[in-house]
Design brief:
By secondary structure, the protein is α+β, with helices and mostly antiparallel strands. The protein has 3 domains: 5-60 and 176-262, no CATH class; 76-171, Arc Repressor Mutant, subunit A (Orthogonal Bundle); 277-385. The protein is built from 15 helices and 12 strands. It is globular. It starts with a helix and ends in a 22-residue tail after the last helix.
């Protein structure tokens, strides 16, 4: 394991490192870039931005997944507002202040000019909440600072606030080589940086394989091209050595999936299992699914993927709830069955255990990889369901 593994993992697990917020870490990463810069450029093919204010590793996946978005956002409107706010901040120098009323007027006028599908209406509480979510995200990412907030915009449409730009907004969105107005699909965004190079040969194929492994929670064979699968097979040993050296991670490859197992439980936001209460439910449901697969009650296809109807998956979730409900936290117990089922399905989809299609749900091999149980007569295990329900 390389002695600077933690620094590379920080760049992989965080949007960027801001010198003003963490000068010690900033200089540690900057002074040791030579240790892992070659890995970033030659294996991931990713752009590394280093200047006197930030260090940012631009992480563009091979296949986009739902968990790669901004998890605090739940509507397209929030993303629209985010981009408009970035336009608002674009020409503002560092430390310039602005008031909320000017910002909300700019957002609405710009949305009208751009003829967006949804024009923000600040009389609607949900729309005001969208803006608040965006501002909170920008604060967390270090793009703006709060100077003064008199009241909450979510509760009061006449609320006012004073904010200050940090001058980092121009680094937030990555640069594109082609004209965005000509992009029609999400793959246009993914492939832009390759500039029409052949994805099946040479450097691009290597980049895509490493990105599958590092930027995704798990890489299923059906998500990889035949050329990527061939690369993974031929260079399996060298890939394992590289990942062990730079990330202290073990590459595990089965017939139909590949994933990284990290030596330490890093407790990163998207780790699984984690401290969310819903995680424990998923572990128990995975156990039920695996048992039925082993008993041949659920059939697998050639890719070790099962297909369940919505009704059957809902029934299994209901049975898991009824079987283990006595261990649940108060919040989980009080959920209606519909809400509970939807919550579990959404969470499993987010972590790529399942995917919905027109016939029902595909159940992927990771279900059998991560399971859980409650040992009999082990009172300590009753705390299993005491995780944070709000994260």
């Amino acid at each position: 394991m390389d002695i600077h593994t933690e620094e590379l993992e920080y760049l992989l697990n965080n949007y960027w490192c801001i010198k003003e917020d963490n000068p010690s870490l900033y200089y540690t990463i900057k002074n040791n870039l030579d240790y892992y810069k070659d890995f970033i450029h030659t294996k991931l093919g990713s752009k590394l931005i280093v200047n006197d204010r930030i260090i940012k590793l631009e992480k563009v996946p091979s296949v986009p997944k739902s968990y790669m978005g901004i998890t605090e956002f739940t509507t397209p409107l929030e993303y629209s507002i985010l981009m408009i706010v970035l336009l608002f901040l674009e020409d503002k120098p560092r430390l310039e202040q602005f008031i909320l009323s000017n910002l909300i007027e700019y957002i609405r006028n710009t949305a009208i000019t751009l003829e967006l599908n949804t024009i923000p209406d600040w009389n609607i509480t949900k729309h005001r909440k969208c803006l608040v979510n965006v501002l909170n995200h920008l604060k967390e990412q270090g793009l703006i600072k709060v100077v003064e907030e008199i009241s909450t915009f979510t509760e009061d449409k006449k609320a006012e606030g004073l904010y200050e730009t940090t001058g980092l907004s121009n680094y937030y969105v990555r640069e594109f080589k082609n004209d965005l107005s000509e992009f029609n699909t999400i793959n246009d965004f993914i492939n832009d940086e390759f500039n029409d190079q052949n994805e099946n040969i040479g450097d691009v194929r290597r980049y895509r394989v490493y990105r599958h492994l590092i930027y995704s929670l798990v890489a299923y064979s059906q998500d990889l091209t035949e050329f990527e699968l061939d690369y993974l097979k031929k260079f399996r040993s060298s890939i394992k050595n590289e990942l062990d050296k730079y990330l202290d991670a073990e590459l595990e490859i089965t017939k139909n999936m590949a994933l990284l197992l990290y030596a330490d439980n890093t407790k990163e936001k998207f780790d699984f299992p984690n401290n969310k209460a819903i995680t424990d439910i998923v572990l128990l449901l995975n156990t039920e699914l695996l048992e039925k697969i082993n008993n041949d009650e659920i059939k697998l296809n050639q890719n070790e993927v099962a297909l369940l109807t919505k009704e059957k998956l809902n029934r299994l979730i209901k049975e898991t709830k009824e079987k283990n409900e006595k261990y649940f936290s108060k919040n989980l117990k009080e959920m209606t069955l519909d809400v509970f089922t939807t919550t579990v399905i959404n969470y499993m989809s987010e972590y790529d255990f399942i995917r919905e299609n027109e016939l029902g749900y595909e159940i992927f091999p990771m279900v059998g990889k991560i399971t859980g149980y409650i040992p009999e007569n082990d009172e300590k295990q009753l705390e299993l369901f005491g995780g944070n329900e709000n994260e």
